[in-house]
Amino acid sequence: MEKNKTYLDKLLTNKDFRKKFDQEYQNLCIAEQIAQVRHHAHLTQSDLAKRIHTTKSAISRYESASYNKYGITLLVKIAKACGTDLKIKFGTSRRLKPSSRFATA
Q: Global pTM?
């Protein structure tokens, strides 16, 4: 039985749209994880801002899907302030072909 394609499924076949969609989805995931660790640590945005020496509005931006300037230093500060560790994981996408430049024999 073939699945009916949604409008999003059709849009995702466009290479440019897919690339932008994946970037936005990644930003959304990071923002959501920041909010989750903050909530888990029972911190308000103001509490977290004080711990990492920034403003509540900055924390609000970091928890927004439209923010895209995350740096490792910032994410480490947030993780430590929330009593957790930052773990970065690389994974392969089914859509990507491995680069021969990095291929191992």
A: 0.78
